[in-house]
Write a structure and sequence with these properties.
about 425 residues, globular, three-stranded antiparallel β-sheet, alpha/beta, 12 strands, 2 domains, homodimer, seven-stranded mixed β-sheet, Aspartate Aminotransferase, domain 1, 14 helices
Chain lengths: ~425, ~425
């Protein structure tokens, strides 16, 4: 930083600073390019060379949105698209409250604020609870965009590492407590987890709740993959923990639940009145969430149970195919994901960034290649995840099959192969 | 702030802090309730007593959106609503580039990033250019939500006061320069201006440009009311200033332009590549702007010139009626607004906050009353605007007439009347 003497004359001051004023902020310079999206130019180049690229790199499902959502938008009768309430369209909020009540989450309209996607929900939650340099504990690997929300909200993420070797098992209470300082404001949990596909059990969630209760921490519970659970147990939400009502802030979204990524509708849900009051004041500042998206989301609430059953069956089929195919490949480790639609995979390679780029730049098999997300960007600790990739099983079986064939062949010839 | 001794044992530390940890952030506590929206509960109570409330308090036009926008959404054929590009839907971006080119703003797709409303556009622009405590000069009165964006972006607003007595004329260059410090990062201008209705001339904009050029400042140019100009001169944008291409960041929105407030689609436009690169990285972190909203906005681009002409004629009629009616009321001052759809009005009253609340709580005329926005919240300097209200002439003439009759009668009997 440029230090200046207080006694310098003020016009010299200005002259001095003029040369540096039209610069970006430190935050702008620190904002990372999305590690998932930064390979996109290489994919475009591959496509322009006529190569078919299978996208396993991004959580953009190919599943259709419920007809009820699409029809609600097509049949809307708005003649002017006015501002909805800052907290959300009333009928959607009350429909959403019923959705939560049906899954045992006891909330009413005022405990729900409709946001512009889950992204805005987490950013608002961090902003209204954390002061600059407050700390939030987050299990790594975690959804890479969390990094940007932390940066934008001035929050310091304190990572607690989980490992592919034990299926990304949740660390012990002692390991969490070792990281708690006077600056710790809360813990983020993503359940089911992007990028690991781990589904935390009731017991694990309750233990996390005990830590939050004991140390008076918020739990930011990202449950946007709630409907994608592949065990026989129902999803256990942090909102289900008895006596923790003031601590839990639920981050939700319709993006994945109903294959409505583009509508940008999420929600912050909490029984903490002070939190919700601050959330509402934040919400008023940016006026409202998108009207058409809320109409789609409200329509989606009428999707029949068969919609979710069909989607779940399809993902289980894809997951089973994926895991079986990967486990057959020598040197590949893939714990079976029990939720969401991601698999974290260890490959016998030197560097997953290099590998992902090489797949697009130099490799093809029968005119096809595959795009994967290198996991380095999903860890806060530098150097971790270098031999891991995230695979989103968002393509139908035929495409998945082709994509995995490409991966298999690629691993045979990749120059940076290990073992 | 609680000061602690570094040598206290760490578990005592934790015990000490436990009691204060589940608190909100300083920002959350400082976030103002919207001064426009905080009277809403009183309006609801009035309505529940059977009183008809005319809303002149909020910039929610009753004008229909262009059919082209509404039809585009109704006829969309999406089967799943995927993420659009973080920078915006390509066809919309290129259509929008043409819109700008048609009004003499020479930009291409890459110089446009589609945002979630003008609100997000300004917040992103401030975040990527300003460090904590950097200063931005803003003419007061200004759009009250700017305060929240400044708070959320850690920017310090430095107000330069304009006065209703000279029609909110732009201050002299010297007055601006007196406020420039080494911390000054830019100037915000809203043209046409919410809340004053002032339309700045080419000459005034060029002078502002000279200041920015000389002192190397950004200009954040909020032009969301561009199509609402009531002189014969075309709107002169900061983007038109020659040689200032690196300094100007245009904040735009379709909310007012096409009566599409609820779609949440805006834009950041700049020829400064570094700014746009940072904007894109910010945009990627929150993934994208709403798909349906962008479809509506793209449809609106095909609205015929007659749409704007009809809208403009309607607003001129309303404005003329409003100004004439107000000027007939004793003790009322209302400079004729030349743009947007707001009038800043001085009333012969003690306190516009009290007056606005009294209108809803205690007053009615033939079963009707009127809601206005007290101007205090539009000034950064405490105490200013106490006898001013903002009136949005967003209602059709018949309603406007009734509303102004209420105001006239109210001023006769308001206990805090002056003169």
């Amino acid at each position: 930083m440029l230090k200046v003497n207080n006694f310098v004359r003020s016009d010299e001051f200005i002259l001095l600073f003029n040369t540096i004023m039209l610069t970006l902020s430190d935050k702008a310079l620190a904002l990372p390019a999305s590690p998932i999206r930064k390979l996109v130019p290489y994919a475009q180049q591959a496509k322009s060379r006529g190569i078919k690229v299978y996208h396993l790199n991004i959580g953009q499902p190919d599943i259709e949105s419920p007809k009820e959502a699409l029809e609600a938008v097509k049949n809307n009768t708005l003649e002017l698209v006015a501002y909805p309430n800052s907290g959300g369209i009333e009928s959607y909020r009350s429909g959403l409250a019923k959705y939560y009540q049906n899954i045992g989450i006891d909330v009413v309209e005022d405990e729900i604020n409709i946001t512009t996607g889950g992204s805005e929900a987490l950013q608002i939650a961090l902003t209204v609870t954390c002061n600059p340099d407050d700390e939030v504990i987050v299990m790594e690997p975690f959804y890479t965009n969390y990094n940007a929300f932390a940066l934008l909200s001035d929050v310091k993420f304190v990572p607690i590492t989980t490992s592919i070797d034990n299926g990304f098992a949740i660390p012990s209470v002692e390991e969490f407590e070792r990281l708690i300082t006077p600056k710790t404001k809360g813990i983020i949990i993503c359940n089911p987890c992007n990028p690991t596909g781990v589904l935390y059990t009731k017991d694990e969630i309750e233990k996390l709740g005990d830590i939050a209760r004991k140390h008076n921490l918020f739990i930011y519970s990202d449950e946007v993959y709630r409907e994608f659970c592949y065990t026989d147990e129902p999803h256990y939400s942090c909102m289900h923990i008895k006596g923790l009502e003031q601590n839990v802030i639920l981050i939700d979204s319709v993006s994945k639940r109903y294959s409505l990524c583009g509508v940008r509708v999420g929600a912050i849900v909490s029984k903490n009145k002070e939190v919700m009051s601050a959330v509402m004041r934040y919400a008023q500042a940016r006026l409202c969430s998108p009207a058409y998206g809320q109409i789609a989301a409200e329509g989606a609430l009428s999707a029949p149970a068969s919609y979710f059953k069909g989607v779940r069956d399809e993902y289980i089929k894809r997951r089973d195919y994926l895991v079986e195919a990967l486990q057959k490949m020598p040197g590949v480790l893939c714990p079976t994901p029990m939720g969401a639609f991601y698999a974290a995979v260890r490959l016998p390679i030197d560097d997953s960034e290099k590998f992902a780029q090489w797949l697009l730049e130099e490799f093809s098999y029968e005119g096809k290649t595959v795009m994967v997300a290198p996991m380095g960007g999903f860890y806060a600790t530098p150097g971790l995840g270098k031999d891991e990739v995230r695979i989103a099983y968002v393509l139908k079986i035929e495409d998945l099959k082709e994509a995995l064939k490409c991966l298999e062949e690629a691993l045979k010839v990749y120059p940076g192969r290990k073992n």
